[in-house]
Amino acid sequence: MTTATTPALDTGTVSTASRRVRRVAAARAATGESLLHYLAVSLSAALLVLILAIAAAVIGVPALVGGTAMTVLTQSMEPNLPPGTLVVIRPTPVDEIEVGDVITYQIRSGEAAVVSHRVISKTYADGELTFLTKGDNNDAADPDPVQPLQIRGTLWYALPLLGWVNNVLNGANRPIVIGVAAGALFVYAAGMVFAAGRDRRRTSASTDAASTDIAPSDVAPSDVAAS
């Protein structure tokens, strides 16, 4: 009878290799989730910055200079100021208004309705200054001269399409919009706190897993008899 010696399965090596495979898979999964997380955070931050910039342009900056944000509703000032354009006007002394300036004035003195047209001439009659205006897209000048008391201000800056946003922010739905915006900011902040906590837990778990790795042990080969 002869005997042959065959090596037994090195269970320590297999266990270590298995743990390494699991760690590599976990690391790859964590990397993919991290990339998605950072992408979501970047998009959220960009959206938040955009919202804050719009709010500043529509509400904050005009308030700082005593100006007013308004929306162009007609085509009389195309192509420079098409419908939907946000125009911000600021108070200007009438003697500083020049030909070529765009002024916003009351259509009828004392009434709320206003229009924004370009000054095409200034006239002094009997010691009183008046302005003749015209829409850039109109064929003829406005029929009535504009009195100083009618003028609300001159154009400071204009932003295409944001006039519709201005209508929403300053219209009857403003309380609803503010509530929704506040809720969105709260959800955003809560999401950031949750994500930060999750990342800390994952980092801690990865550290603990790495610290429990056991070096492979030497396993003695077993003798198997063969006839």
Automatic annotation (TrEMBL):
<feature type="transmembrane region" description="Helical">
    <location>
        <begin position="176"/>
        <end position="196"/>
    </location>
</feature>
<dbReference type="GO" id="GO:0009003">
    <property type="term" value="F:signal peptidase activity"/>
</dbReference>
<dbReference type="InterPro" id="IPR001733">
    <property type="entry name" value="Peptidase_S26B"/>
</dbReference>
<dbReference type="InterPro" id="IPR036286">
    <property type="entry name" value="LexA/Signal_pep-like_sf"/>
</dbReference>
<dbReference type="InterPro" id="IPR019533">
    <property type="entry name" value="Peptidase_S26"/>
</dbReference>
<keyword id="KW-1133">Transmembrane helix</keyword>
<feature type="region of interest" description="Disordered">
    <location>
        <begin position="205"/>
        <end position="227"/>
    </location>
</feature>
<keyword id="KW-0378">Hydrolase</keyword>
<protein>
    <recommendedName>
        <fullName>Signal peptidase I</fullName>
        <ecNumber>3.4.21.89</ecNumber>
    </recommendedName>
</protein>
<keyword id="KW-0472">Membrane</keyword>
<feature type="transmembrane region" description="Helical">
    <location>
        <begin position="38"/>
        <end position="65"/>
    </location>
</feature>
<keyword id="KW-0812">Transmembrane</keyword>
